[in-house]
Q: What sequence folds into this?
């Protein structure tokens, strides 16, 4: 397969390199990824600034472009300008830290996959549920497996897959489950500080766990030790509410 | 009502000021908006940089904070730190330019409303379908009307409304319709240039219209001269595909 590899942790991130090492065993891989870390940029795109690219080649087997933009910029630019052939599959990751629940909205990793789906291309976002001492091997292995199985899944254009891998040794992972995105809000915190010049500023606080999570979802399954797979699409419409409200007239 | 007003065009944007002027006729309004334009930042949040705030007061009737972050940052920070009381409603806009179709994914205006919904608060994003010579009056009037009608709509927590207003004189607007988000991809273009130092860079091209759009949606209704209202929620799961794939096993 022709695979386009991207991420939001930046082109030098170890998670991308680990996935690259695994994929080049079986596939043609090109990398188009942000020059710098772009975590939590969500589905941002660059409108008012020029986007610069730097061709990158390493060890004679890592080829690609470092892009001065967001993950969504990378996918758009790769597909419309940089790649000679359309990729068969776009892989985003391996992200350091899970992308489950409402964090999908903030995730550059997931947005790269959604952007690919918007362009009508198959895409898979892969995240590993740890920030410390990551072993990317099971995640890279699962991504490689999903890539090969892709045609069997029969996914329609516009749908991509969001995959999360527990940070466990391979033999402790309980299997892979298809599951929905968790919609329970997580507690938000900010830390207020004063700088040496007397000005107030805030740090966004660490993610806290919610006290209660409703039903089974990517969040709960991942916590239980399962690989989670969620089919996602860029449709924000609440179709249930839409049907209910259709006849509620608001006049100007 | 206690209303929180925000946007993605920045706290000095004329669309925000027009909406503020209309809302203070009937409500308590506080403004927490980005210090600088944040268009197309999508649902980005600020993780690695400190977030600064500047208290703003003008003419004795405009009170608020300019925030060195994204629209999502503004809403999070306003609700958890800056406002003494939780707002009854969060309004985002009036944005210069429509937010319909897949652009919802890139829109800071819409993300502010989604963020409010994540925090369990009612929210309305309002955009005007023009970039030139905007007359914000019908949009401000409709937003004010929707704000008052809000309790009647019975929207559950987690759902917000995305509203687009045609750039037409009030008497030419055909009415307001409830409609879904258009999912037809728009053609993407980039312009490649060389800078005076010989380096390649790209500009993202202007939005082009798609050749064919499937079915009725926010995109088509707005083009026909209707105000569009779309209930949206931060659920990216493709539930149809999820049911179909549930028994498709992928082993590690």
A:
């Amino acid at each position: 397969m022709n695979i386009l590899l991207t991420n939001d942790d930046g082109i030098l991130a170890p998670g991308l390199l680990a996935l690259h090492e695994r994929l080049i065993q079986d596939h043609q891989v090109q990398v188009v990824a942000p020059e710098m870390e772009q975590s939590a940029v969500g589905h941002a795109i660059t409108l008012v600034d020029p986007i610069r690219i730097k061709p990158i080649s390493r060890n004679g087997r890592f080829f690609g472009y470092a892009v001065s933009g967001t993950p969504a910029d990378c996918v758009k630019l790769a597909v419309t300008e940089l790649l000679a052939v359309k990729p068969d599959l776009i892989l985003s990751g391996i992200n350091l830290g899970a992308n489950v629940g409402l964090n999908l909205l903030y995730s550059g990793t997931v947005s790269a996959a959604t952007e690919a789906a918007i362009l009508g291309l198959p895409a898979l976002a892969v995240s590993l549920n740890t920030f410390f001492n990551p072993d990317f091997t099971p995640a890279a292995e699962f991504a490689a497996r999903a890539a090969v199985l892709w045609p069997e899944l029969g996914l329609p254009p516009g749908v991509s897959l969001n995959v999360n891998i527990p940070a466990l040794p391979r033999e402790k992972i309980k299997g892979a489950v298809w599951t929905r995105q968790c919609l329970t809000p997580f507690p938000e915190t900010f830390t207020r500080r004063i700088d040496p010049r007397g000005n107030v500023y805030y740090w966004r606080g660490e993610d806290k766990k919610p006290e209660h999570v409703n039903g089974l979802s990517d969040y709960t399954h991942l916590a239980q030790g399962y690989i989670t797979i969620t089919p996602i699409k860029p449709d924000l419409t609440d179709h249930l509410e839409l049907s209910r409200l259709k006849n509620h007239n608001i006049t100007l």
Observations:
- The first strand of chain B starts at residue 2 and ends at 6.
